[in-house]
Amino acid sequence: MPVGIVLRKTPGVTRWAAWHWTAVAVLPGAPEADWRELRREGEAVEYHAATLTLELHGAETEAYLHGITAEVPSVFVVMRAGEGSDPLDVLLVTASPYEAQDYTDSGEEIVEKVPMPHGLVAWVRDFIEDFHEDEVFVKRKRDKKRVDLVQDGVGDPRIGKAADIYASPALKRGRLQ
Predict the structure, then answer these.
(1) Cα-flanking dihedrals φ and ψ of residue 138, to 5°?
(2) Cβ atoms of residues 118 and 97 within 8 Å
(3) What is the C-alpha to C-alpha distance for residues 132 and 121, in angstroms, rounded to an integer?
(4) What pLDDT, in 10s, does the model give residues 20-41?
(5) Under 8 Å between Cβ of 6 and 24
(6) Scanning 3, 36, 128, 174, which has its CA 20 to 30 A from the CA of 120?
C-alpha cells in the first residue's frame, strides 16, 4: 500500500542544530510527492516528504501483531541525513517494531514512531487474520547423561596440582629467594 510520510520542520533549540525534523503522520493511499509543503504555522512547516510502499510479509505476522496490540498502534519511518538537496532521505516505512529496532542498532538511521491511522490498523489486522499461525511451543527434554561427575579443563594437565595453576606475585617471590 502506498503511504505518504509527513515530516515537520521546527526551529532547533540548541545552537548546534538550526532545525529539528520529526515524522508526524502517515497518509495511506497517498500519491507521489517530493517535499510538497502541506501546512505552515509560524516557523513550523509540515511537508509531504515522500510516498513509500508499506509491504507486509506472511513470515512477520507476529511482529505486526505485537505492533498493533501496543497501547498506540504505530508504523515506523526510517530516515537518514540527506545526501542531495533534501534535508532527509526517507528510506522505509514498516509496521514491524522488530524491523525498526534492527535499524536503530546501527545508529546511522533515524527511526520515528508514528501513530497508525484506523484504516491502516484494520488493513494490517486483516492481513494478520489471513496469514498468522501460532507457533507451537515444544519443551526440550533434558539429556540423561550426567556431566557434573568429571571436571575437565582445569589448569594444565601436566601439573599434578588440584588447584588452578595461577601463582600470585608474592608466592613467586618466595620461590625465587
Answers:
(1) -120, 120
(2) no
(3) 15
(4) 899 999 999 999 988 898 999 9
(5) yes
(6) 36
Q: What is the mean pLDDT of the chain?
A: 85
Task: Locate all alpha helices (DSSP H) within 8-80, ordered by sequence.
Answer: 61-68
Contact 74, 66 (CB under 8 A): no
CA 71 to chain centre: 18
CA-wise closest residue to 96 among 80, 73, 119: 73
- pTM over 0.90? The answer is no
Give, for 171, the enclosing helix (H) or strand (E). helix 169-176
Supply 124's cell numbers: 494490517
Give first-to-last CA distance, the chain, whole Å: 82
Q: State the pLDDT confidence band at 177, using cuts at 50, 70 and 90.
A: low
Nearest Cα neighbor of 33 from 46, 45, 51, 21 is 51
